[in-house]
Amino acid sequence: MPGNLYNNCSNLPATPTRLERLLRERELRKYSKCLNDCEAELPSSTQDCFSPDLETSTCWFNDEELLETVSASRSLNDDGERLDFRTSKQRLLVVANRLPVSAVRHGEDSWQLEMSVGGLVTALLGVKEFDTRWIGWAGVNVPDEIGQKALAKALDEKLMQRCIPVFLDEEVVHQYYNGYCNNILWPLFHYIGLPQEDRLATTRSFQSQFDAYKKANQLFADVVNEHYEEGDVVWCHDYHLMFLPKCLKERNSKMKVGWFLHTPFPSSEIHRMLPSRLELLRSVLAADLVGHFVSACTRILGLEGTPEGVEDQGKLTRIAAFPVGIDSERFIKALELPEVQDHMKVLKQRFAGRKVMLGVDRLDMIKGIPQKILAFEKFLEENPNWCNKVVLLQIAVPTRTDVPEYQKLTSQVHEIVGRINGRFGSLTAVPIHHLDRSLDFHELCALYAVTDVALVTSLRDGMNLVSYEYVACQESKKGVLILSEFAGAAQSLGAGAILVNPWNVTEVASSIGYALNMPADEREKRHHHNFKHVISHTAQEWAATFVSELNVTIVEAQLRTRQIPPPLPIEVAVDRYSCLNNRLLILGFNATLTEPVDTLGRKDSQINEWEPKLRPDLREPLRKLCDDPKTTVLVLSGSARNVLDDNFSDYNLWLAAENGMFLRVTTGDWMTTMPENLSMEWVDSVKNVFEYFTDRTPRSQFEVRETSLIWNYKYSDVEFGRLQARDLLQHLWTGPISNASLDVVQGRRSVEVRSVAVTKGAAIDRILGEIVHNKGMKEPIDYVLCIGHFLTKDEDIYTFFEPELPSEVPASVRPQVPTQVRTSIVGSRAALLMKQNSMSAVEQNKSYAIDGDTLHSMVTDRISLQEGSSVLDLQANDYFSCSVARKRSNSRYRLQSSDEVVTLLRELADHR
Ligand SMILES: O=P(O)(O)OC[C@H]1O[C@H](O[C@H]2O[C@H](CO)[C@@H](O)[C@H](O)[C@H]2O)[C@H](O)[C@@H](O)[C@@H]1O
Ligand SMILES: O=c1ccn([C@@H]2O[C@H](COP(=O)(O)OP(=O)(O)O)[C@@H](O)[C@H]2O)c(=O)[nH]1
């Protein structure tokens, strides 16, 4: 799971194991060697790592362990064993709003450093495999140069140059951190919505807060640039720094940039409320690797989301899932320390004879502290016998205290606690111990270890590491975890915890009773389940996976950017054509054989000419080619049958309409190759959406085909068309197609909806079977030229003829081109089916009158030319796949435009 969508992704791929990652990295290393490009090599920084000079460090921290943690120079070998590497570690720049230490000023040039509180810091403290530098804000305004220099020096000396401060002035902190981050993004990302109160004031200040946000992000970028060394991995964290990837990439496009979100990412319905929604998402997409937020990108930006990631203007941003964890060993080991044992002893004595329940949260509205306390009150109300036998210890760490919402929350919680203690307390004991402060690490471990129940009632939470820490410290006691179903941790610890809806006070109250009375064997089982998870899904694993994925992504991106095929060597293609005897030409129609569309839209007089037309200058060469007995021409298009009929009825060729779902030779009738189980029930509802947008988008149009619907805005104003397309997608996804097995294929100026099974590559097998059979071919096809302006989804047609080659590796880096591309017995994988009932009455009369059984035997018959021989016998040099007017493609070659198609077809037609 990612650091964000914990709450809404259920079927994401499992995180690869360390071994899988390494294997993958090695595989890519091989590729990058093929690329013959030193820069493509995976990083292996040789920076020495320093270990802290504990001898000379005075007690600057209230937690000395921090020093060790921040400066640790350990690593893991392939088997997960710890090694003590001091060299060859990857340099990692961790950029987060918050440094692991916060600074407290003690004089003009004297600073005390304290450990920062929060899950982000905890998780990142577990990151030890790398040579890490932290870049962040020390939580304090330092207006003067003397103070800044002294703080930088203190961090530099005491944390071995590992913490680099970013200085933000008071006004920026106010507008960026208190304002935009914590009053706008934080509540929105946690489904609380934008602030309702002072609405006008907020709207007015929104722009200035957003400006400050961008400015702050730029300041972070400046510090990163100052410290960046070639080969570093830059890992940006959280909602504070959504602009950072863009700032960094603008300055240095080669920088390896990852971005990880620690909060939930809201559904697109929520995110679209944000006035700066597009800018923010686009900036994040400048990163090479981000946490999982595909749906927001596809629905808000209207981008194409794939299992690999999101593609924006040719750049793929890899999206993957990375569940954060803790350094469990650190907690487990701490329990042995004398100071922790001492704390435990004191606590046990203090609460002897009572069950102890624990809450540890920052005092934040997302943590559901009032709800938790009210549920506890209800439990006491309903179970008076427990009144003197149970106590709730609530550690509520003050946080973001300058934000009014947090101030209000503090008063509200104090009021409820006071009321309940007044109501159920006695002279000697109160039911709730509420602490408005943080604890140090040892105190916290002791508390985790001695308490009977932990109560986590977050209304939303990215992960909630407190629940992990509690489990890590409960190996001997086997306490019960009550956990909100709205915390990311519910997905990982749900099996062992008691899951609750924090809004349902009655349910939480009864869960408290259940937990307090749980028999030992059930506690043991539940704990065991969670403990196993916590110790195996650690912060180390999280960071290692993320960084390794980022490295892999970079190499993959380099491979992708090379997928700009070379120009088609027309002379060679013509030469090979002349040498061979059974040639197949597969031609796309739109933007291949048609005239180019004027990007600004056609003249008014032409706007009714929606239908694509064969270029007049192609008529003659096409006719010659079609009439050549050694050549078979197939026009394979997404267009409907009537469109192809209108353009090609006079030629002697094959027509495959609707991406191959319908087929005919021009001397015969249409037949369908449509799989029988293709459901078209969705058509009407999608049609409604398309109609609605066609009405509202001048010069757009939609076409209802038999197997797909397409809305295109190629003659509309491009910008407006794009905006409308985004909105249209939003409507589709939230409505008609939310549960259907459909593909939405976005073209440059179109949106097409079709069944998942329909692609040109999927159809070509059946089509070839039919052609070979119909023509009574005696010799196998020995030359294939396949050219078209095909959508990515349809590019499977190029790879159909060369299955041995991985489609993602461009021709230029293929290790060895096999001499034989494909020898295939076509038709064996898919049957050619007649589906008369999908045609109109007139069409039915025209189509074959064949029953199912006859058809089946036809299909079996046409499996091969003769017993044992194949319909394709293609040598690598005689196969020319070629994209038209597309920059990147899986084809072997490309032509710039349909003008070049004219040149090519003319030369083929006139070959000697
Ligand atoms: O830096 P602060 O404003 O004081 O806030 C503390 C941190 O709160 C958030 O933590 C999140 O990260 C945890 C680890 O991934 C996760 O378990 C938790 O659910 C989140 O709320 C925030 O995202 C951090 O940036 C803050 O530093
Ligand atoms: O007095 C305290 C209370 C809490 N924490 C730490 O604060 C983090 C809280 O992380 P969590 O993911 O639960 O939520 P967040 O506060 O980041 O939203 C945990 O690692 C706690 O150990 C701490 O250091 N001192």
UniProtKB/TrEMBL annotation:
SUPFAM superfamilies: HAD-like, UDP-Glycosyltransferase/glycogen phosphorylase. CDD domains: GT20_TPS, HAD_TPP. InterPro entries: Glyco_trans_20 (IPR001830), HAD-like_sf (IPR036412), HAD_sf (IPR023214), Trehalose_OtsA (IPR012766), Trehalose_PPase (IPR003337). This is alpha,alpha-trehalose-phosphate synthase (UDP-forming). In the C-terminal section; belongs to the trehalose phosphatase family. One of its GO terms (molecular function) is trehalose-phosphatase activity. Keywords: Glycosyltransferase, Transferase. The keyword Glycosyltransferase applies. It comes from the Eukaryota. GO terms for biological process: trehalose biosynthetic process. It catalyses: D-glucose 6-phosphate + UDP-alpha-D-glucose = alpha,alpha-trehalose 6-phosphate + UDP + H(+). It comes from Gossypium raimondii. NCBIfam families: PRK14501.1, T6PP, trehalose_OtsA. Its EC number is 2.4.1.15. Pfam families: Glyco_transf_20, Trehalose_PPase. The keyword Transferase applies. GO terms for cellular component: cytosol.
